[in-house]
Amino acid sequence: MTAVAETVQMTYREAIREAIRDAMRRDDRVFLMGEDVGPYGGGFGVSLGLLEEFGPERIRDTPLSESGFVGAGIGAALGGMRPIVEIMTVNFSLLALDQIVNTAASLLHMSGGQFHVPVVVRMTTGAGRQLAAQHSHSLENWYAHVPGLRVVEPATLADARGMLWTALQDPDPVVIFEHGSLYGVEGELPADAGPVDLDRAAVRRAGSDATLITYGGSLPLTLEAAESLAADGVSAEVIDLRTLRPLDTATLVASVSRTHRAVIVDEGWRTGSLAGEISATLMEQAFYDLDAPVQRVCSAEVPIPYARHLEQAVLPSVPRVLAAVREVLDGG
Amino acid sequence: MNTEEARAAVVDALARIAPEADLDEVDAGGDLRSEIDLDSMDFLGLVEALAESTGVDIPEDDYREVRSLDGLVAYLVRRAA
Amino acid sequence: MADYLMPSLGADMDEGTLIEWLVGPGDPVHRGQVVAVVDTSKSAIEVEVFQDGVVGELLVPVGTTVPVGTPLATILEGAAPLPGSAPEVTDESESPAEPEPEVTLPTEAVAMPTGAPPPPPARVSPVVRHHAHELGVDLATVRGSGPDGQPTRHDVDAAARAAQRLRVSPYARRRARELGLDPAIAAPGRPGGVVRAAEIEAAAAAKEKAERPAAAPPPATPAEAMRAAIGQLMARSKREIPHYYLQTSIDLGPAMRWLAEHNTGRPPSERIIPAALLLKAAALAVREVPDLNGFYLDSGFQRSEQIHLGVAVALRGGGLIAPAIHDADTLALVDLMAALKDLVSRARAGRLRGSEMSDPTLTVTNLGEQGAELVHGVIYPPQVALVGFGRVVERPCAVDGAVLVRPVTVATLAADHRVTDGRLGSRYLAALEARLTHPEAL
Which chain C residues are within 8 Å of A330, Cβ to Cβ? Predict the structure, then answer.
């Protein structure tokens, strides 16, 4: 008889699987639908084993038609179910944008408050695995732009485990982004890890000289940059946004009011980025606390390359973050 | 009025006159004027505050008896009986 | 229209911090009304305005430290509504025909400034003011070459050219404002660069060091700040005033007996403490030697018609402050006692008024029951005398040929030898003793 462990070792992928499992057990209305989620176990292996556990009514393979099955998922939500719609990646979600933006996000408003759409859409996002131009987008900013949607992105195991149930409680649409590079990341979770809030950004590392703001797949590299800065005597505060719409501006402003310097690390392309939105917000709410212009570290303005060395040059990286912090400390 | 009530009234009045004094450190038998640095204005204020809260008026002739914390408490218990 | 300036609340005060506005733009004010609370290194003081009018614009935000004489607000005559909130619109030659834009009131502690530049000098022509606004030039930083030091258009252009080279980060600009500095005194970290907060802090530290070479390191607590302020005042007193000292022992038997009789049967709220008797006597006695009551200024000694008695009050937790009881000689003893009680409690609560700090014409220090037998006082400039009373001690005295034990206090006079000498000083002490021997007449 083994003693009950206080923490469990698992991967980010397993944490999401556990979250789905937990949700399905708590609420009969919850079901998973998406391409290859059944026997194949999901495009990224998240739903491996779930078909055997819950059966084909609740783990449903869909045709290769994002617009169709996202629409069906929205219909199921309107009909009283709590669907988790898995779109393999944000790249393919473009085909379902009309459903998500014009139906899911707008129905509550257009129906004068009569029809909530309690759908949760999960999608993989990001680059770094040589999947080339059409399969490497970070378009979180497009979704974060739309009123009627709540957009979150777990960057840690605890959030991967805990955000799903809270999202399913929301009577309105929630989009959950999972960065592809995080699925294999291993870590420890408390055995009784449960739902977490979707409202607040998290200070992952406290500091006093500069605030580094990031989310999702860029969190590990930002923390690495902060570690490197600490060795040089610079104390960087790292904030994980967690919620991209709405932004937890209070936490961001409070931090910048103390450090007086901000750098935003965002894998999206610089123009029209979420980083731009955050920068404008900081300018509006913390202008008189800024000792230097807010810096952005974003992807270079090119379609994401296939060749590894080119792809790495385009994406945010530790050296680029360090350069941005140096700029904000002594530049100008 | 019993001893607890009298002591509470004294502590409360002293807190108003000398808010920064730590009454736990005070020698209860010692002269309050030197223990908590009360001058004649403070002492009158203390007498006034106690008259207000307990109804006991301490005439000047009795000041001798109430120089210490213990003295004050005993006096109040006796007079309020 | 007139400027309401940061008042001087003591001979040693160079600057004050505006900690609370009690009026806002558009409020009518009358002479003597308390309009703000100012923090000096000694305590928080309520400051009054000395004219009737309507508050125009609040020029200094809460939390700002400014030198004495800095305009804090504009006071308009009469009850007309304000023409507007931007400085370039409140010039006295303009008629109130401007539309009334939104006025933001700095009524709470502000972490960031309201955005309005510091007020320009009183007389700038509207044309020049407008030109400066267009060029983004801060008129307070422009040296005027016109008549009476007025800035001209040429001055503004020159300042604009100079200012173009300077870039300052928003946080640095705010720090400069908080520190009361012109950002232009700080150079950027590197040539052609931007002035950051670090440069402003360094410039402020350097400026302070240059202005006060012999000063002690900045005090860490309010108590230390008060100690430093008292120290400076006392040092100045000793440096500038040639003190001479006289003393006399006074038999307080009659006075204490009278007091005991007065207090018997009276509730505590109507009792009088010995200090009140001493103060009344000190005030009445100086009527007979008026050269001990007044101020020694650059122009010489100015006698004061009124007797505003400064009362040295020891603050609990350390520190000393000596606010005035106005017209102390005219107050009935019971009223003087009430005034004394009120003054002491407000002094200890830090709610004194500006006029109480600046008006004492003669100060009395009473060491009380725990003090020494005799005090050689240090005069508070610009006053010219300090009366001291030591502890009341039972002493053997010769009374009508017999030796009796009487309560005796040693009264001292420290006086400014530039104004009086021992003969006049002695006359005062004699008058003091005479008054205390007839307490019923106090």
Answer: 189
Q: How far is C357 from C343, CA to CA, in rounded Å?
A: 11
- What residue in A sits closest to C174 (Cα-Cα)? A288
User: For C170-184, what is each residue's pLDDT tens digit?
Assistant: 999 899 888 888 887
pLDDT in tens, A37-53: 999 999 999 999 999 99
Q: What is the pLDDT of residues B14-53, one digit of tens each?
A: 888 888 778 788 888 888 888 888 888 888 889 999 888 8
| Dist. CA A234–CA A327, nearest whole Å | 13
The verdict on residue A1 lying in a domain is: no
β A59-61/A30-34 pair status: parallel
Whether A254 is in a domain gets the answer yes
Instruction: Report the pLDDT value the prediction gives residue C430, as an integer from 0 to 100.
Output: 95
C436 pLDDT higher than 90: yes
- Asked if the Cβ–Cβ distance from A291 to C196 is below 8 Å, we say yes
Residue C216 pLDDT class (50, 70, 90 cuts): low
Residue A51 lies in domain: 7-190
Three-state secondary structure readout of C19-87: EEECCCCCCEECCCCEEEEEECCCCEEEEECCCCEEEEEECCCCCCEEECCCEEEEEECCCCCCCCCCH
Distances (CA, A) of C284 to C238, C278, C411: 27, 10, 15
Which residues of chain A lie closer than 8 angstroms to C196, CB-CB? 291-292, 332
Q: How far apart are CA C374 and CA C367, in angstroms?
A: 8
Model confidence at C287, pLDDT cuts 50, 70, 90, reads: very high
Top CATH class, C223-441: alpha beta
| Range of lowest pLDDT (C78-82, C346-350, C373-377) | C78-82
* pLDDT value, residue C104: 45
Number of domains making up chain B: 1
Determine whether the interchain pair C316/B18 forms a contact, defined as Cβ–Cβ distance below 8 Å.
yes
Q: Determine the distance in angstroms separating the CA of C314 from the nearest CA of chain B, rounded to an integer.
A: 10
CATH classification for the domain delimited by C2-211, as one of 2.60.40.770, 2.60.120.10, 2.40.50.100, 2.60.40.10: 2.40.50.100
Which residues numbered 402-441 in C keep a CB inside 8 Å of some CB on A?
A: none
Find chain B residues with C-beta within 8 A of C222's C-beta: none
Check whether residue A153 and residue A230 sit in a common domain. no
Report yes or no on A12 lying in a domain.
yes
Among A285, A288, A294, A330, the strongest candidate for a mutation testing the C interface, having the largest count of C CBs within 10 A, is A288
Look up tokens 């908080």; give the residue.
C178
Q: What is the CATH number of the domain that holds B32?
A: 1.10.1200.10
Q: Chains meeting B at 3+ CB pairs closer than 8 A?
A: C
Interface test with chain B among C262, C264, C266, C273, by most B beta carbons within 10 Å: C273
CATH label of the domain that carries residue A296: 3.40.50.920
Residue B33 domain boundaries: 3-80
In terms of CA atoms, which chain C residue is nearest residue A284? C170
Contact at CB, B37 and C316, closer than 8 angstroms: yes
Please say whether the beta carbons of B40 and C275 come within 8 A.
yes
Distance in angstroms (rounded) separating the CA atoms of residues A75 and A83: 10
Please state whether beta strands A262-269 and A210-214 pair in parallel, antiparallel, or not at all (unpaired).
parallel
Q: What is the reported pLDDT for C218?
A: 62
Work out the minimum CA distance from C327 to partner chain A, whole angstroms.
49
On whether both A174 and A236 belong to a single domain, the answer is no
Give yes or no: residues A279 and A181 share one domain.
no
Of C359, C383, C258, the closest CA to residue C306 belongs to: C359
Question: How many folded domains does chain A comprise?
Answer: 2
For the annotated catalytic residues of A, the residue numbers are 66, 135
Higher-confidence residue of A116 and C297: namely: A116
Q: Is the pTM of this model over 0.95?
A: no
